[in-house]
Structures are given as structure tokens and as C-alpha cells.
Amino acid sequence: MSDVNQKIMERSSGNLVINPDEQRYYLGTFQERVLATIKIEDVSAKDILSLFKATLNKEIKDEETVKVKISSQISEETQMAFLKTAKEKNLSATIIEEKLSTSPFGIVIYTDHAVNRQETNLLMLSDSTMRDKESKNSKSKKNIFKRIFGK
User: Does the structural domain 2-121 have CATH classification 3.90.850.10?
Assistant: First the structure.
């Protein structure tokens, strides 16, 4: 009898959602599936769309399924620019209407399986990539001088 009562209570309160706060925070997906994010305040940053395109190209090569979620909190013009870019890459893109604005993200790039990335902020990822390239360049310069002067 309690099983029936439990089922009635579950049905009356809506579908059971696993980790709803995390899903609201990441525009309806789980944190472990997130590949990259762009915060709402960073969506209008200089060159963010070209950085978004480059990230999509990289993620398409690395992952089977890549999808994009776009927050309704950003301007419609910006939403359409990101939506168009995702569609050009033949990716599934969805504009998420947030009733309770709890997500700081304007864009979430994600996949359908767990990837567990520590850093997902697209601007931070691009900065670290640039630093890695600069350090490789400086190492190669040092090697040339070592070869010339033999030290």
C-alpha cells in the first residue's frame, strides 16, 4: 500500500530530476558533460565568436557528439550569431528559456557523456593555450642559442 502512495506522491510532484540545481546552473545539463562555457558578461567580449568557432572545431575533432545551449538572458542578436555558428557546424543548438535565472553562463558547449573537465571557461582555456604556445616558442629559441653557442 505504501508503494502506491509513494507513486502517487511522486507523480503529483512532477518527474524526478537528478541533481536539479546543477542542471539549472549549466543550462539543463550536468557539470561532468560540459566541454566549455562562456559567461553572460563575456558573451559580448571582443573576438569571442571566433574563439567559439575555433573551440567548436577542436571539440568536433575530439568528441563524437557536441551540442550547444544558449541562454535566453543574452541579447537576441547574440543568440542568433551563436546559433548560426553552431548550425554551420551541423551541431544541435538550443536556446534555453530560464524562468529562474540561476546560471551565470550565456553559452554551454557539452557532450552526451562524462568528460569531467576542471576548467571550462572558454576565455581561461584560450589564455592557457596562448601561454603554452608562447612557452614553446621561447623554449625553441633557447635551443637554437644552445646549438649555436654550445652551452
Answer: no
